[in-house]
Amino acid sequence: MITFDYAPASPLPAITGKMAMHKPSITITSPKPGATVKGSFTVKVRITHFRASCALLGKPNLDGWGHWHLNLDTATGGMMGMGGMTGMSCTNTIRASTAGLMPGSTHTLIALLVDNQHVPLMPLVASRVTVRIGK
How many CB atoms lie within 10 A of CB 120? Predict the structure, then answer.
């Protein structure tokens, strides 16, 4: 048996199952609607009233905590839209790619908030931006 005292210089706040919640939101801030993207590009979001955490991926759900997914063209359908998922993030950015997309076509980027189990918040909390694929 080993005992120890947890005494960090700056302890993290305790995570609780309930937070005083306002309505969560996510907004794509870049690229702008109608922008042309090509190759590898960064999608930036602003998240409010929701805490994104990589450490909680796959852990039991906590109200107000999770991460976000970036989907292409759909956030519904089989596996709750995961067929259109291009990536997930627990920060305010994600790297995306136009690989496999036809130059000149338009597509909708959808950023959606999900819980720790990767299930979209319901009702859906999402932001959409339509972009053109460059050459």
Answer: 21
Q: Could you identify the residue written with the tokens 């519904």?
A: 76
Based on C-alpha coordinates, what's the Rg of the chain? 18
For residues 45 and 127, what is the distance between their CA atoms, to the nearest angstrom? 9
pTM of the model: 0.82
Separation between Cα atoms, residue 122 and residue 9, nearest integer Å:
39
Given a contact cutoff of 8 angstroms between Cβ atoms, the answer to whether 51 and 88 are in contact is: no
Instruction: Return per-residue pLDDT of the chain as tens, 135 residues.
Output: 788 777 778 776 766 655 556 899 999 999 999 999 999 999 999 999 999 999 998 889 998 999 999 999 988 766 666 668 899 999 999 999 999 999 999 999 999 999 999 999 999 999 999 999 998
Q: Would you state the structure tokens that stand for residue 23, as one six-digit string?
A: 């309505």
Whole-number Å distance between alpha carbons of 8 and 21? 28
Which range marks the domain in which residue 44 is found? Answer: 25-133
CATH number at residue 106: 2.60.40.10
